[in-house]
Write a structure and sequence with these properties.
The structure holds two protein chains of two kinds.
Chain A (H helix, E strand, L loop, with lengths): L2 E5 L2 H5 L2 H10 L3 E5 L11 E5 L2 E5 L7 H6 L5 E4 L4 H4 L17 H6 L4 H7 L3 H11 L11 H10 L6 E6 L8 H8 L1 H15 L3 E6 L4 H13 L6 E2 L2 E2 L1 E6 L9 H8 L23 E5 H13 L1 H5 L2 E2 L2 E2 L1 E8 L5 E6 L4 H8 L9 E6 L6 E2 L10 H6 L8 E6 L4 H15 L5 H4 L1 H13 L4 H18 L3 H5 L1 H10 L11
Parallel strand pairs in A: 1-2, 6-7, 6-11, 7-10, 14-18
Antiparallel strand pairs in A: 1-3, 3-4, 4-5, 8-9, 12-13, 14-15, 16-17, 16-18
Helix pairs in contact in A: 6-10, 6-13, 7-8, 7-10, 9-10, 9-11, 10-13, 17-19, 17-22, 19-20
Chain B lengths: L3 H9 L8 H12 L6 H9 L3 H10 L11 E6 L2 H5 L2 H12 L5 E2 L5 E6 L11 E3 L2 E3 L4 H11 L5
Parallel strand pairs in B: 1-3
Antiparallel strand pairs in B: 1-4, 2-3, 4-5
Chain lengths: 496, 155
């Protein structure tokens, strides 16, 4: 019986992967559902097991199954290992995704899983933290804070109980790496959480998952059940994981608002200090880390920190699964060492716009990231280079816009989104975002433009300097980038 | 059936759970399609919270409806990646087709139209969902077909 691999990734399913899987089953093949390879312009994909390795096909519809099995499909892409888009990547975190059934623990172990945790448990907690520090790993959620320092702070903090909290509230538009990993390799996330628990002396972990990710929820529930190192004691480690679901609040991706939500309250941001590392969940020392950060600790412990530190650029060590989407020919997941340029990602990997029109703007880092013009496309994708250019690498999301984009409209959206998602605690964000929408509207309408621009500048300064958290604090970033790089969109003749 | 007992049972199942209010409200919203008004006092009583605490949490989170939605729930992503791929036009089309604005239920109760801020399906934008079923590369035709399948397209 021919074995066929078809993704059950929610993205692949959203364009018909289930029908493709059913068709192969009906045609007598053995179907294994996997994560997605992240080559979304080719989904729904299927991979056929042959004596020469796995052969890729896509994009497919159910009706194509017969010809694929008969060997005369026009959708053949050649061997999976030769796919140019995959060959060019450096897959560490995403190495297993698309290869195996994500919930088959035996397959996970056979493909390198559990090695990181075993290596960690052979070390003392202090040695694990040293390894993470030596690797240069920085938080992948967006802030890029050195993970080793965070874990050391929690390990050294006083308290009878400590917690690991995985921030799986991936709310930034243009980001889906966490989703793909939770759906495609959930054991890796759990392994990273267990390593963190050993390192800091925690026995309990939470995953705070956004409600917009139901497939990830199902995968995590199954993985928590199936992982032998979660629940009970394993090789001397006692570690429990509880999955908690969010309820549609972008601000709950901010770590202190997340903790409030986890504590059963409105997701309102807290002032820092105290840091969650000292007083986090229920006042206890808490590691709050992004999905990718935790997953990376498992690969780092398995391979050794030097391998991680050897990749990347400057102080941005290791690889990042960059997520490319928007108006782009080849949208998908591209895991690469830090340092390639934005142009290489957008034009080289991405193939430019889907419409064929010129790229006019690229927003990197989610809704709080800057809109970069063509002139900045040669900026290297690393934390420092982006900050120096007035942008933010964030969680690695890259959204491409063609020349039909109106940056005044995007700036207005930045304010409107902030107003919608504001927790309401601080005035600069709660009121400022709303005033920002109104001010942009007046500018676009040609209403007292010069003075409105002054008001806008003042407002942006207030929000940047006076907001309690990054939502209000960074909303000025996309707005300012729009004003700086695309001034013509704010100076147009107003429609009558 | 929405009964006080059903609400109480869900709340009581979370007694002793740290931060129980959030998972209780999520469970109620999933079970009944909304958080019934009666839940405010019942949950407060069961979890020993103030009614204001409960009301505050219900009003904070976008997912929690206080009234049942229409027979079909249509969600369209309004975030940047979907905007870049034509999401605004899709959104406008949905409003026209369903005869209601975002955040509202159509007059005949057939459909509720909601904005979502990212499904994580950005690489297959524009993204939408009909009764929880995620759609990618959503053209207006595809959306209409999905809504019709779910039974809510007006004649």
């Amino acid at each position: 019986m021919t074995r066929v691999y078809v993704p059950k990734d929610s993205g692949a399913r959203s364009v018909g992967a289930d029908a493709v899987a059913a068709a192969f089953e009906a045609a007598g093949a053995e179907v294994v559902r996997t994560g997605s390879r992240g080559l979304y312009w080719l989904e729904p994909m299927a991979e056929i097991e042959t004596a020469d390795g796995r052969m890729a096909f896509g994009p497919l519809a159910g009706a194509d199954a017969a010809s694929v099995l008969a060997g005369n499909s026009a959708r053949g892409l050649g061997p999976v290992r030769d796919l140019p888009a995959l060959r060019a990547q450096t897959r560490k975190l995403f190495a297993r995704i698309g290869e195996i059934d994500p919930l088959d623990y035996g397959a996970y172990r056979a493909h390198g899983g559990e090695a990181g945790l075993r290596a960690a448990l052979a070390l003392s907690p202090g040695e694990v933290i040293e390894a993470i520090a030596a690797s240069g790993l920085r938080g992948r959620g967006g802030a890029g804070f050195p993970t080793g320092i965070k874990w050391r702070t929690v390990a050294e903090a006083a308290g009878p109980e400590k917690f690991i909290v995985c921030n799986a509230d991936e709310g930034d538009s243009g980001t889906f790496a966490d989703r793909m990993l939770m759906e495609g390799d959930p054991f890796l996330l759990l392994e990273g959480m267990a390593i963190a628990a050993h390192a800091v002396g925690a026995a309990k972990g939470f995953i705070y998952l956004r409600s917009e990710y139901p497939d990830a929820e199902a995968a995590l529930i199954a993985a928590i059940q199936a992982a032998p190192f979660v629940g009970g004691t394993w090789e001397g480690l006692r570690f429990d994981v509880e999955l908690r679901i969010g309820a549609g609040a972008y601000i709950c991706g901010e770590e202190t608002a997340l903790l409030e939500s986890l504590e059963g309250k409105r997701g309102m941001a807290r002032a820092k200090p105290p840091l969650p590392a000292i007083a986090g969940f229920m006042g206890a020392p808490t590691v709050v880390n992004n999905v990718l950060t935790l997953a990376a600790t498992a690969t780092i412990l398995a391979e050794g920190p030097a391998a991680h530190a050897a990749l990347g650029a400057g102080r941005s060590k290791g690889t990042m699964p960059f997520q490319l989407s928007g108006n782009v020919r080849r949208p998908g997941l591209y895991e690469m060492p830090f340092g390639l340029t934005l142009r290489t990602l957008v034009e080289g990997f991405g193939g430019g716009t889907a419409t064929g029109r010129p790229v006019r703007a690229v927003q990197v880092g989610g809704p709080l990231g800057a809109y970069f013009p063509n002139a900045l496309l040669d900026t290297p994708l690393d934390y420092e280079a982006f900050a120096a250019a007035g942008g933010m690498l964030g969680h690695g999301g890259v959204v491409v816009f063609d020349d039909t984009v109106d940056l005044a409209r995007q700036a207005r959206f930045a304010f409107a989104f902030c107003a919608h998602e504001s927790c309401g605690k601080c005035t600069p964000c709660r009121i400022g975002a709303q005033r920002g929408v109104e001010t942009i509207d007046r500018i676009v309408a040609g209403n007292d433009r010069a003075r409105q621009r002054e008001t806008l500048d003042d407002l942006l300064e207030v929000m940047r300097d006076g907001s309690l958290c990054a939502l209000g604090g960074l909303t000025p970033v996309p707005v300012e980038s729009a004003l700086k790089w695309f001034p013509e969109d704010f100076e147009k003749e107003a429609a009558r | 059936m929405i009964t006080d007992d059903a609400i109480r049972e869900i709340a009581a199942a979370h007694i002793g759970v740290a931060g129980a209010l959030t998972p209780v409200l999520v469970a109620l919203n999933r079970r009944f399609g909304h958080v019934p008004p009666a839940a405010e006092q019942i949950v407060a009583d069961v979890l020993n919270l103030s009614r204001a605490d409960v009301a505050g949490a219900i009003s904070f989170y976008s997912d929690f409806r206080t009234r049942p939605p229409g027979a079909v729930v249509v969600q369209i992503c309004r975030s940047e990646a979907c905007q870049a791929a034509g999401g605004d036009a899709l959104a406008a089309h949905a409003e026209t087709q369903l005869g209601c604005a975002f955040g509202e239920t159509s007059g005949d109760g057939a459909a509720t139209l909601d904005a979502v801020y990212c499904f994580g399906n950005c690489a297959l934008a524009p993204a939408a969902a009909v009764n929880g079923r995620l759609l990618g590369r959503t053209s207006m035709t595809l959306l209409d077909a999905a809504i019709a399948d779910a039974g809510a397209l007006p004649e």
